[in-house]
Amino acid sequence: MKYFNSLILLLIIVFSSCTAPAGEVTLLHWNDFHSRNLPWVPTSYNPENHSVGGYALFDAYLDSLGREYPGALRVHAGDDFQGSPVCAVTKGVSQIKILNLVKPDFFTIGNHEFDYGWRHVDSLRRHLAEFEMYAANLIDAESGESALPQYKIFRINRYPVVLIGLTHPQLDFLTMAKNLEGVQVADPASTVRDLIGYLNKRGLHTFVVISHMGLDLDRELAKAVPEIDLIVGGHSHTFMRQAENVNGVWIVQADDSGRYVGVTRFKAEKGNIVSLEMQYVETIAGRLKPSPDVEALVMRYEDALAGIMDEEIAHLQTAWTRSGGESNIGNWIADAFRNAVPGTDIAIMNNGGIRKDLSAGPVTVRDIWEIAPFGNMLVRFEWSGKELQQALDNMAKKNRALQFSGVRLLLDRSNGLIDADINGSKIDPEKTYSIITNDYTAGQAPNYFGMEIPVYQELGLADRDVLVEAARRQKTIHAKIEGRIVYR
User: Fold this and answer.
1) Which residue among 9, 189, 227, 487 is the one 20 to 30 A from 387 at the CA level?
2) Where are the domains of the chain?
3) What gap in Å lies between CA 54 and CA 298, rounded to an integer?
4) Which strand ranges, in their side-by-side order, compose the sheet holding 457-462?
5) Distance between CA atoms of residues 459 and 438, nearest Å
6) Can you tell me the distance from the alpha carbon of 474 to that of 166, in angstroms, rounded to the nearest whole number?
């Protein structure tokens, strides 16, 4: 496999040795920003009800911390795309231009950077981005070589530290198949192990993985490759009260959406981290003045859409709240899907496509776009009762989280489907049932249901358009949990 940064590596070897002095390194890290470009008010652990974040304020905190810790590296662990109307309308261009001002030193590509297709994000990387994207395990399908740079070497007080990017190994589940045309994903552990072996022979011994894989997979990676010194994580949106040590490998992560800057400081000697501390700095509004250049760019994008996005279309009587099981927002979305195509028996919505909760009160077009930011298209297909029963049984055994309309399920996580009613009647194995869902869920049917959907009808309806119109018609919304999904 071809390795990047050969010239830089040669210079490092010439001007340093394995007896380099101790390195004191500060990483200012964030992950899963999801285009939260405007300040927002967290609903958890926020008794003061203060607002946080937005990229202009976040950048100001990075600047302030950079002055406190000279030489600190700005490290982004992926998923800056997806979450706001601005990002959706511009297909990520807004985020690239904002990041050009924020200037990350290292950016690992996340799964949501693929939401508009690999070829699109690669074009943005090549022609618009003024920073580099990294992923050691992303492979060009045609050449078999790395599709992105794998690592970058930083010299901090003459001490060489290698940052290695890793993207999620299950991209084929996390995004639509068409979005990955041209690339494949290699095993993270073997990729990093081989890369560290290659770099060890060239006198480099301190390795920090910037991972967009989630905390559980980061722990697995630490167990498999103890030669790693530190993993700075993303994807699972984890608030870690303290750094975790697994098999001698430190792991940190900085929550999500720009609420916190993760500040991880460590001292390395002879290739080993001898001390490490991690803290969060909350990006509370009012304590710093937002960066003027970032604020101007953010508002330029927001102002262009404000007239459309800020229209109030309904009133929510009870807060919409997501959950791992049945949720009231999931019920409302699935009902809206089913009602959009009269005569449909069942509607299904994947939990991962519901991207935010919403407090009781006004519902705007922007809220719907932020709840359903992907612009997935609705599709319709048919299963026999026998196929439907098998699919629901597989879903329960796989412990896949989905929302339903027209269905009441009694499930057991180990033993699968116990009982199911379709619109008040037991499943008839001989009957044909019509089902509506989004194209992502249909494409991932083997992962959700253990079976393919060979043929489905494209309806020409974007999910968020259906939801906007449903909210307009309903005006006053009181969604609730109804016992559609019960686990025994």
Assistant:
1) 487
2) 6-302, 312-487
3) 9
4) 402-405, 346-350, 432-438, 377-384, 457-462
5) 10
6) 45
